[in-house]
Amino acid sequence: LLAGVLFLCGAALVAQPEEKPSVTVDLYLSTDCPVAARYGPRLAAIVSDYQNQGFEIRAWFPNEGETKHGAKQWLAERKIPLEPSLDWGGEQAARDEVEIIPTVVVRDAEGNRLYHGAIDDNRVDERAKTPYLRNALAALAKGEPVAEEAGEPFGCFVMPGDPLPPAGQITYADHAAAIINENCVSCHRPGEVAPFSLVGYENARKWHRMIAWTTEERLMPPWPAEPGYGKFRGELALSDREIEVLKRWAEAGAPMGEEANLPPEPEFGDSTWAMGEPDMLLRVPYQHEIAADGRDEYWHFILQPEIDEPVVVKAMDVHPGNKRVVHHVIGFIDSTGASLNNVPDRENGPLAYERFGGPGFIPSNSLGGWAPGMRPQAFPEGAGIVVNPGDRLVLQVHYTKTGRPETDQTEVGLYLADPDEEITDELRVAWLAHLGLRIPAGEPEVEVERTFNVPAGFKVFAVMPHMHLLGQHMEAAVETEGGETIPLVRVPDWSFKWQFAYVFEEPIVLDEPGQIRLKAVYDNSAGNPDNPHDPPREVRWGENTTDEMMLLVVFYSRE
Ligand code: HEC
Fold it and tell me: To test the ligand 1 pocket, which listed residue (179, 217, 220) has its Cβ within 8 A of the most ligand atoms?
């Protein structure tokens, strides 16, 4: 958040009208050069002193393996208010004849070099005698020529990675098609969740500007969790390089290239399920009717898996019968039959009941939740949720109203462990919820924190953050008694539309007791376009979409 504010300020200052001739200052940096790191405070001061005086200061990262995210963090940690630029293959550094990091190149509006060299003459702040860069900028700010001789750069060699294909040689056939097929068409094809197809050149050409924009903004592919904060299975994310290739392809007018170079057509099985046909399909046995209006309804459908042996569920997926009304689905496991007590007419009616504020029995376990946009991920080898013969699956379906009568018949697909998979972690579900949540009316930034104790031996396999329409930001981390902080998940830009369950690449194991700290930020002002109340009013924890939640669903086991 803080970094974001800093960058915003930086951008605003640069954009101010300039009186003096514009001068660009290119800083060559890297996240792994210790000398560059030592210059952090000095650079932060120089940038804040000169950024608003007609200087455009840019931070280039030419080394192999740099990422936009990593560079951004490196700058933010040093409070240097600049947006990083990756210098692919060190092209820009080569043009500037830069071989050492850090080096500075100052140019006038015509591109004439005014200064090329070191920032000052010593890596240790106190020992530096000649502040070359400061002297140069001070002279230029007064409209005087740069007097000082250039300081010899010292530090680390530039170690560039592979260059991008030259401009004009990036084509659909050679480059863009592979990226789009790999990352987009699983959703962007006929019959899938996305509103249009990106299969084939004609579709990609038509959408090329939107493809470049949504990928550069990281709106697509949808993956709301912050990269690098927690490591998850099936992470949907383009590399910085792929984003740059799509951008350059779009800028060149989305050329096709040689048809002969097209990658193989993407193949999709016949299944309409993201993970392929489920091993077990459970379906609400009748078309359920939903009234046209009134408050949201929470229906519970009791389904009976037909099994003679225990099975281990690796993943659950849901096909809502009617996407207009199914807002979310939670699968509870009932091993005692207690859920049946909620059914109004067990003899003649369906095994279903409406109930607000919880399922009306104490579930033995849960298969977790599903919300629109979510793609299921299997738990890692050895982990899963056990369902025993006789257990019932109680499907809680939250229905919203559309203003006309609707029907729905939802299906659940379960993916099971092979019988020879040795199960070492039988997973359970904890609901970390702040039931006392109260968000005052009109407040644009309400920060709420909650902690939940966890014992030693606790192993976290997956987390699913959940808020409603006022939610802006949510993050969760484990803080151990020994003072260690282990990131779980951070969703910096909460969107009600994209609610994912995040399955960790490797489970998070606690060797000592600790607590999970949950932080959430809400915007209950009239300025929040998603605010369901106009004018805003106090919002509390509740089951309606117009209420709020602060919830982290945690899949865990205990040693
Ligand atoms: C997990 C499924 C999924 C994947 C993967 C995905 N999209 Fe989308 N995309 C969607 C959905 C759903 C929408 C509609 C969003 C909405 O209704 O607001 C969408 C919307 C869009 C839009 C319209 C702009 C907008 O904000 O509505 C563009 C452009 C787009 N996607 C491009 C891409 C590109 C390019 C990729 C691959 C790099 C990609 N998408 C990957 C599901 C996906």
Answer: 220
Half-sphere exposure at residue 264, Cβ-oriented, CA atoms within 13 angstroms: 3
Residue 178 near ligand 1, beta carbon < 6 Å: no
Classify the C-alpha dihedral 133-135-141-145 as positive or negative: negative
- CB within 8 Å of 319: residues ≥ 6 apart: 272, 273, 410, 411, 412, 413
Residue 76 in contact with residue 110, Cβ under 8 Å? Answer: no
Q: Which two tokens stand for residue 131?
A: 């502040």
Cβ atoms of 290 and 405 within 8 Å: the answer is: yes
**Is the distance from the beta carbon of residue 250 to the nearest atom of ligand 1 less than 6 Å?**
no
Q: What angle do CA 521, 525, 527 make, to 5 degrees?
A: 110
| Two structure tokens written together for 157 | 């060699």
Q: How far is CA 424 from CA 178, 367, 383, 557, in A?
A: 38, 18, 6, 9
Q: Decide if 315 contacts 377 (C-beta within 8 A).
A: yes
User: Would you give per-residue pLDDT tens digits along the chain (559 residues)?
Assistant: 333 333 333 333 334 444 544 899 999 999 999 999 999 999 999 999 998 788 999 999 999 999 988 999 999 999 999 999 999 999 999 999 999 999 999 999 889 999 999 999 999 999 999 999 999 999 999 989 888 778 999 999 999 988 898 878 999 999 999 999 999 998 898 877 788 999 999 999 999 999 999 999 999 999 999 988 999 998 888 999 999 999 999 999 999 999 999 999 888 877 888 889 999 999 999 999 999 998 889 999 999 999 999 999 999 999 999 988 998 899 999 999 999 999 999 999 999 999 987 899 999 999 988 887 778 899 999 999 999 999 999 999 999 899 999 999 999 999 999 999 999 999 999 999 999 999 999 999 999 999 999 999 999 999 999 999 999 999 999 999 999 999 999 999 998 888 888 999 999 999 999 999 999 999 999 999 999 999 999 999 988 888 999 999 999 999 8
Distance CA 365, CA 367 (A): 7
Pocket perturbation via mutation, ligand 1, pick of 186, 187, 209 by most ligand atoms within 8 A of CB: 187
Assigned token pair, 163? 């260059």
Residues 6+ away with beta carbon under 8 Å from 92? 26, 60, 62
Residue nearest to atom 11 of ligand 1 (CA): 194
